[in-house]
């Protein structure tokens, strides 16, 4: 039996380009038990899957990242512990905290009654720590510092952007006198060029203070036996600074040699400027995810057992607490309404702009907004277990994943820096030979090659577009499980829809009762209702609603007939209730009621038969109506406009299924399909379509078909099983979101490919130009910085995407 695979997301700091991401991946996958590691340069995280029996593997993971020359930023969370009395209590609390997945180290101080937990940034939820301490038999609450840690982490990103801005501006200010002098020199005013001494004084701090980050990161790469962008910049600028210093040293007194201090300083200034713009753009790529994470309020109002209320930190909420939410306030946890009613704005989770009316026993989710009324809810899930937290984790996982096209980019990135250094050396030797031993010219050409190379753009091309696309999708109620689902979705040529609950409302009502000769309609209804008494099927619920208040017979020997119906004894009489297939299999003669059944099916009704199993006689028909969803016809039309064919799968009779399909404009109908046959049918459709096939469903019986499709699309209104099997989940039961999901997948994939094109184009065009001396080092540095910024800016253009419904409303 294979070991279970666990997963962990680690933050990684210090990466600058695709080769850095490759180094971290290589270091992590080399560890025993690690199945795979995927590094996202844009979000600076590593998603690691491993087969360790517990998460004690965390320490080796952190060590591996640090040995590769990078850092794992850490959180230090402080908790106040109550109820401890001795050293054994300390041991129990430490053991409980250390057992929480993601915790690196936990230490408890008995004297101060505090605990300090060290964990990779964002890996541990405070609510989870509090629950672990409570389970161990002690009390815990966030220490003031811990409560502020989330906002502190948020501020850190802004501080990083500000720091990069200040360093970039300082580098530019120091470089301006050097670059200005060069411009005057090109204009023939040699007398306005700064003397060599002052050029040296200005360029040296730019080189070795403002440029120190390149030396530090480049040295880390060398120690790991590889290279990165920082190494290229460090080599190129050091060579330019060194050449200038050598030429100045060799010059005769009073002579004004041609120096390259301005080139070295300008390269560092341009790269610093690029890093600032890159940091700003990175912040915008994760803006949608941050917006989701901010939805949950920091404080909550809890009702005490005596009826009074108290305001507490959200992390203090526990299951079964009574959460009081007034009009205009957001829910701090998932819960079940026990008092009050009101309209709840769920647009932040589902993308649905209209509020939903909620009352007793309805579920509410953390982050949604109570528009009016006073609601009291019993807390069902807190912290990382809420629907909001699960959505955030799903989006983070999707953003950390890699589409198949990225594999090629990773292979190129792994050898990119060594190849560039080799090209620079060849350029130096070739130019030196052709130029008759002109060391200065050869070195300038080699420097240009080093600094024009753009490994950053390669590393950011895919994850930047992926992060914007998946974050944008989540804001509109579309959850994408991974990058592969996104890439497959763009190639969808055929969409297969389950009928009930997907294209129809899934709330059928009894429309017709047809009794055989000599049979009472009321008796027919009561017998059918008695057979379905324990079933949760939508048709059974419709029967019970119609027969409400009627006395039901005693049922025994109940049997479920999947895809057919049910059987059992009512007051001792063996009965069958189900579709025409069940009647045929049990030898029931349908002739007396066949005309009525065909008439009702032609009207789009779902027809169920009630029969006496002993006498092999049909007792009557009960017809159900399930109206198509209002958006269904428009959803099918949108897919057709996109060149996508549609198929409807249904267990209903052909007549009923075809009637619904005709109303919606669906081209092909597969009726009387058993649940176990849906997966086989999807496999057959994949062979016929000539492209990818998507399956859209919402029930447990749809899960095999969702898994068999190239990409499964689950309605979020359906079961967890369907959602876990699907590659894409729609957070509301609107079939129009299918077209939106495919459309956004196409847009995101197009941005990925555009980014990769530009990233490769910069290098394919720029490196030869530099090698042949057609690009001076300063312009090469500007082009290198521009490459990363342009890739990120192109990815951010995705934020202009809007669902078709919103575009039509404009």
Which key terms come to mind for this protein?
50% helix, six-stranded antiparallel beta sheet, 30 helices, seven-stranded mixed beta sheet, alpha+beta, Alpha-Beta Plaits, 810 residues, Rossmann fold, 29 strands, single chain
What report would you give on this structure?
This protein has a 7-stranded mixed beta sheet with strand order 17-29-28-27-18-25-26, with helices on both faces. The protein has a 6-stranded antiparallel beta sheet with strand order 9-8-10-16-11-14, with no helix packed on it. Strands 19-24-23-22-21-20 form a 6-stranded antiparallel beta sheet. Helix 9 runs antiparallel to helix 15, helix 16 runs antiparallel to helix 28 and helix 17 crosses helix 28. It has 810 residues and is an alpha+beta fold. Among the domains are: 62 residues, Alpha-Beta Plaits (2-Layer Sandwich); 136 residues; 131 residues, HAD superfamily/HAD-like (Rossmann fold, 3-Layer(aba) Sandwich), CATH 3.40.50; 117 residues, Calcium-transporting ATPase, cytoplasmic domain N. The radius of gyration is 33 Å and the shape is elongated. It is built from 30 helices and 29 strands. The longest helix is centred in the N-terminal third of the chain and has 38 residues.
Set out the fold topology.
Elements: E1 6-11, H1 18-29, E2 34-40, E3 45-50, H2 58-67, E4 74-82, H3 87-98, E5 105-109, E6 114-120, H4 126-135, E7 139-142, H5 144-147, H6 149-186, H7 196-210, H8 212-223, H9 229-250, H10 261-285, H11 287-293, E8 299-303, E9 309-313, E10 322-325, E11 334-339, E12 342-345, H12 347-350, E13 356-358, E14 363-364, E15 369-370, E16 375-381, H13 387-400, H14 405-434, H15 439-452, H16 455-475, E17 478-480, H17 483-489, E18 492-498, H18 499-503, E19 509-515, H19 521-531, H20 538-546, E20 555-561, E21 565-570, E22 573-578, H21 580-585, H22 594-602, E23 606-612, E24 617-625, H23 632-641, E25 645-649, H24 654-664, E26 668-670, H25 675-689, E27 692-697, H26 703-708, E28 711-715, H27 720-725, E29 728-730, H28 736-771, H29 777-796, H30 804-809
Parallel strand pairs: 18-25, 18-27, 25-26, 27-28, 28-29
Antiparallel strand pairs: 1-3, 2-3, 4-6, 4-7, 5-6, 8-9, 8-10, 10-16, 11-14, 11-16, 12-13, 12-15, 17-29, 19-24, 20-21, 21-22, 22-23, 23-24
Helix pairs in contact: 1-14, 6-7, 6-10, 7-9, 7-10, 8-9, 9-10, 9-15, 10-29, 11-16, 13-16, 14-15, 14-16, 15-28, 15-29, 16-28, 16-29, 17-28, 22-24, 23-28, 28-29
């Amino acid at each position: 039996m294979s070991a279970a695979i666990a997963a962990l997301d680690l933050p990684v700091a210090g990466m600058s380009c695709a080769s850095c991401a490759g180094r971290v991946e290589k270091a992590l996958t080399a560890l025993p038990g690690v199945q795979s590691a995927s590094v996202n340069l844009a979000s600076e995280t590593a998603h690691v899957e491993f087969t360790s029996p517990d998460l004690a593997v965390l320490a080796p993971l952190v060590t591996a990242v640090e040995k590769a020359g990078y850092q794992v930023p850490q959180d230090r969370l402080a908790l106040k512990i109550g109820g401890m009395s001795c050293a054994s209590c300390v041991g129990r609390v430490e053991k409980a905290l250390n057992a929480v997945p993601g915790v690196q180290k936990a230490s408890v101080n008995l004297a101060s009654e505090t605990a300090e937990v060290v964990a990779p940034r964002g890996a541990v939820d405070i609510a989870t720590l509090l629950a672990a301490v409570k389970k161990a038999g002690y009390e815990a609450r966030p220490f003031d510092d811990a409560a502020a840690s989330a906002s502190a982490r948020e501020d850190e990103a802004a501080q990083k952007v500000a720091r990069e801005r200040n360093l970039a501006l300082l580098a530019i200010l120091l470089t301006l006198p050097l670059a200005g002098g060069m411009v005057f020199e090109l204009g023939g005013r040699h007398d306005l060029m700064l003397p060599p001494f002052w050029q040296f004084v200005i360029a040296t701090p730019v080189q070795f203070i403002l440029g120190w980050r390149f030396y530090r990161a480049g040295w880390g790469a060398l120690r790991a036996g590889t290279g990165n962008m920082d190494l290229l910049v460090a080599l190129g600028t050091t060579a330019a600074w060194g050449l200038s210093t050598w030429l100045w040293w060799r010059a005769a007194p009073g002579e004004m040699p041609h120096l390259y201090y301005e080139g070295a300083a300008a390269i560092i200034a341009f790269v610093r400027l690029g890093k600032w713009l890159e940091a700003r753009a990175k912040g915008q790529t994760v803006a949608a995810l941050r917006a989701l994470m901010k939805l949950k309020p920091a404080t909550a109002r809890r009702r005490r057992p005596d009826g009074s209320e108290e305001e507490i930190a959200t992390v203090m909420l526990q299951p079964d607490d009574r959460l009081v939410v007034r009009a205009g306030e957001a829910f701090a946890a998932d819960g079940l309404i026990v008092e009050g009613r009101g309209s709840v704005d769920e647009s932040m989770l589902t993308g649905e702009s209209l509020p939903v009316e909620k009352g007793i026993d309805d579920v509410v989710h953390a982050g949604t907004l109570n528009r009016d009324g006073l609601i009291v809810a019993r807390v069902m899930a807190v912290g990382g277990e809420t629907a909001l937290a699960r959505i955030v984790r799903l989006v983070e996982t999707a953003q950390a994943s890699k589409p198949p096209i990225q594999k090629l980019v990773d292979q190129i990135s792994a050898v990119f820096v060594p190849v560039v250094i080799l090209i620079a050396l060849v350029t130096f030797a070739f130019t030196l030979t052709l130029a008759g031993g002109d060391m200065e010219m050869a070195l300038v050409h080699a420097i240009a090659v080093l600094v024009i190379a753009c490994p950053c753009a390669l590393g950011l091309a895919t994850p930047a577009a992926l992060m914007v696309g998946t974050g944008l999708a989540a804001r509109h109620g579309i959850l994408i499980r991974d990058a592969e689902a996104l890439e497959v979705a763009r190639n969808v040529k055929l969409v297969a829809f389950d009928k009930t609950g997907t294209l129809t409302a899934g709330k059928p009502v009894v429309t017709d009762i047809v009794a055989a000769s000599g049979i009472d309609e009321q008796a027919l209804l009561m017998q059918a209702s008695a057979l379905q008494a324990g079933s949760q099927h939508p048709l059974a619920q419709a029967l019970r609603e119609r027969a409400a208040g009627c006395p039901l017979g005693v049922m025994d020997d109940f049997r479920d007939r999947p895809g057919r119906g049910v059987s059992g004894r009512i007051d001792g009489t063996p009965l069958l209730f189900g579709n025409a297939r069940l009647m045929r299999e049990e030898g029931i003669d349908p002739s007396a009621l066949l005309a009525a059944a065909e008439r009702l099916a032609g009207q789009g009704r779902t027809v169920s038969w009630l029969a006496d199993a002993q006498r092999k006689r049909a007792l009557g028909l009960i017809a159900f109506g399930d109206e198509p969803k209002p958006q269904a016809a428009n959803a099918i039309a949108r897919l057709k406009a996109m060149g996508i064919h549609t198929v409807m799968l249904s267990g209903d009779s052909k007549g009923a299924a075809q009637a619904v399909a005709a109303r919606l404009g669906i081209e092909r109908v597969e009726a009387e399909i058993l649940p176990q046959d849906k997966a086989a049918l999807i496999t057959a459709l994949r062979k016929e379509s000539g492209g990818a096939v998507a399956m859209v469903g919402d029930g447990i019986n749809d899960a095999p078909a969702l898994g068999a499709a190239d990409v499964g699309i689950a309605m979020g209104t359906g079961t967890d099983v369907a959602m876990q099997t699907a590659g894409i989940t729609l957070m509301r039961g609107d079939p129009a979101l299918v077209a939106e999901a495919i459309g956004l997948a196409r847009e995101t994939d197009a941005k990925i490919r555009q980014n990769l094109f530009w990233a490769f184009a910069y290098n394919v065009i720029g490196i030869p130009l530099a090698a042949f001396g057609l690009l001076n080092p300063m312009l090469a540095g500007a082009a290198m910085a521009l490459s990363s910024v342009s890739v990120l800016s192109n990815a951010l253009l995705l934020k202009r995407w809007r669902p078709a419904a919103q575009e039509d409303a404009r």
